[in-house]
Amino acid sequence: MVSNRDPSSPTLSRYRKKRNFLVTPEPAPSASNLPAGQNLRFVVQKHWASRLHYDFRLEHDGVLLSWAVPKGPCYDPKEKRMAIRVEDHPVDYSDFEGTIPKKQYGAGSVIAWDRGTWEPVDDPKAGMSAGKLVFRLHGEKLAGLWELVRISKPGDRQDQWMLFKKRDEWARPLADFDVIKALPDSVTTHPLGLIEDREPKSGRARSGAEPDLDLAAAIAAPLPATLEPQRATLASSLPVGGDWITETKLDGYRILARVDKGRVRLFTSGGHDWTKKLAGLAVEVERLPVSSGWLDGEIVVLKDGLPDFGALQDAIDGAANQDIVFFLFDMPYLDGKDLRNVPLWTRRALLSGVLEGERERIRFSQDFEAPPAQVFEAAAGLGLEGLMLKRRDAPYESGRTQTWLKAKCRLRQELVICGFTARGGKDGEVGSLLLGYYESSEQGGREGSKLHDAGSVGTGWDARTGRDLWGRLAPLETDSAPFDIVVTRSRRWSRRAAGSERWVRPELVAEVEFAEWTANGVVRQASFKGLRMDKPARRVVREGGQTLTRAPATSRIKVTHPERIIDPASGMTKLDLARYYESVAAWILPHLKDRPVAMVRAPDGIEGEQFFQKHVERTGMPGVKAHDRKLWPNHPPLLTIDTVDALMSAAQMNAVEFHTWNSTVRRIDKPDRVIFDLDPGEGVKWTHVQEAALLVQTLLNELGLQAWLKTSGGKGLHVVVPLTPRLDYDAVKAFSKAFVRHLAKTIPERFSATSGAANRIGKVYVDYLRNGMAQTTAAAFSARARRGMGVSVPVSWEQLSELKSGAQWTVQTAREYLSFETQDPWATYWTTAQSLASASRRLQ
């Protein structure tokens, strides 16, 4: 019998087949030398391949049982993290860190995010077979009891599990501690020691018993023949008060199940009977311990653990019907009792009891105890549609109510299909859909009267779907546009011309995701998500026009107004920015220390008023150092940011950008660097900016000067030349001016030495003016007050060809990038001494 410790073990065959060990640095399977009884190892490897994820590995029977966890582990028991079981890995893999080459399986960078030993609570072999593994971790970041539970069923494409923290003394709410963000680095390069040896336990034990159910308002009543569902109102902000239940907004179809003497019928929110369409699901509902009742929920199809609306559409009328999962979230009637006036929390507690036991296709829609803002942030990060927020004490009321709210991460709603165009002008496949919505005839009306033009959508489907849409729309064709209110065309629509718009009776409904509403009521940057077969066209009205602002939970960083939005484009908040600066303090402070600084402050966010602060103001910033006026006579005192406290104090006062002088306070009049800011003009391709940087480097090298590179965080690049601080600002500026003019004269088709937008069209402007006295440049690792919040990041010249833009990294991604970097591309910058004397003579 072959042991798993043998490299020829069949459990490692998938691992071997996926890798070319002549190319990849990953370890080939080898016989383990571990003695019997050795503590079992675990490792969590942070893996940036096509996307960032975490590989969770437990040693068992001579191999590493392995799961890919997209969001990583979490100490909050309420946070269930998807874990995809992957091939077993050799035990030697627990020591692997490095880069898997391109074109190899799993190409990307790998670091050991955590490591230690683990103890199974029960027989691990039996637990794996049963799909439930409980264990204790002893790591540098993870500790306490954890559980892995299989949620997939036999025959599924992926072996899906859920990883979550068990309730014990180590459990901590995500709002208090996010271990992924707080400890992002490798434990190999940044060893921490066992967390059990260095940190006290949280003391959060399992909470006490739940309160007794409140059934005072339950009424004995016959089963209603019909039931209109309760609907949510679109929220423009998260509720800040009151007691709310927070659930995920599922991306599917609303379905209500009516159970009468054990027989089940399934209805859409519009009252259509879909029992035959979902016959298999109806059988599953009949197995519940309910003799009569109404159950309210949403049907979805999960892909990689997340709802996929397109897959649901394919499944409803196709062979994948058995993949549909019914998530139940309410139960307004049960076994002779009308529960509609019973508080929501009690109805959900009863429903949870009905759903006890493992079921593949009927599941309880879990709620989250974390603050809504924290859950919203997580939902947005997962790409979910949004959240449902329901008053805990709310009754069940048919129709749209304010006690149920929906908070959308992205703008999305149903729109009526009013016409289409042919792809490439040829019949048979839809190229775009022309959309509309009804304006309600009265406030709160259920059906609209006038059909409003809403623009078009031309993306979001493949060729097969395009042909299917054609087949559905062609029979509905009519001669003229059905709109009552037209806003996207200036000409009068009447009979169609071949190859242009083709109009249809407004009967079909599309689900569409989009960036925003225009002022005249048209969707921008729309993407088709699927057809809504459960929604009557006449009930499609415009819901609203704003996505919810993202506000994270409180943090250990003392920041006032943490929810304030800094960048509406990305949803970045003041707290997000403060956390970023705290996380990169070790990187940014060497570029700030002892240099006079100018801070770009944006009290109302980057789209509001911004201003530079270079000197002391009445608004104090504890830790920010104000220097003696003698340092720069006849000017207010200069400021420097030399410590973490100073950096965080500036962030608290809404400082977004940090710009520094080219000299330090020790030799204020002698710059120790010269900077060339490569700023592309209108029409300049990014490849030309990259070529311009190489040309600048080449000329500098010919002049005997070494240069270092960083992204600007905006449109361009910064080339930085360190100097021995001997020349004054006038001499250094004169050199930079001569250098840039030489570039522009030698390659005039690529470079401009003259500022002004008109002078740089199609060219790269190399700004030498930043080398004058008191002029500043954005510091390395500074965020930029621009849409997306790009960050200026030092890179090696070898990385230049891989860059996609000057804002390659943002506040949201820069720290994760740094966690994979083992070498500082600017390591020798600080010790390089150079003089401009020879280079200046050669330029003359």
Automatic annotation (TrEMBL):
The keyword DNA repair applies. Its cofactor is Mn(2+). One of its GO terms (molecular function) is DNA-directed DNA polymerase activity. InterPro entries: DNA_ligase_ATP-dep_C, DNA_ligase_ATP-dep_cent, LigD_ligase_dom, LigD_PE_domain, LigD_pol_dom, NA-bd_OB-fold, NHEJ_ligase_prk, NHEJ_LigD. It catalyses: ATP + (deoxyribonucleotide)n-3'-hydroxyl + 5'-phospho-(deoxyribonucleotide)m = (deoxyribonucleotide)n+m + AMP + diphosphate. Gene3D superfamilies: 3.30.1490.70, DNA ligase/mRNA capping enzyme (3.30.470.30), DNA primase, PRIM domain (3.90.920.10), Nucleic acid-binding proteins (2.40.50.140). Keywords: ATP-binding, DNA damage, DNA recombination, DNA repair, DNA-binding, DNA-directed DNA polymerase, Exonuclease, Hydrolase, Ligase, Manganese, Metal-binding, Multifunctional enzyme, Nuclease, Nucleotide-binding, Nucleotidyltransferase, Transferase. Residues 317-439 form the ATP-dependent DNA ligase family profile domain. The keyword Transit peptide does not apply. SUPFAM superfamilies: DNA ligase/mRNA capping enzyme, catalytic domain, Nucleic acid-binding proteins. Its EC number is 6.5.1.1. It is an enzyme of class 6 (ligase). GO terms for biological process: DNA recombination; DNA repair. This is DNA ligase (ATP).
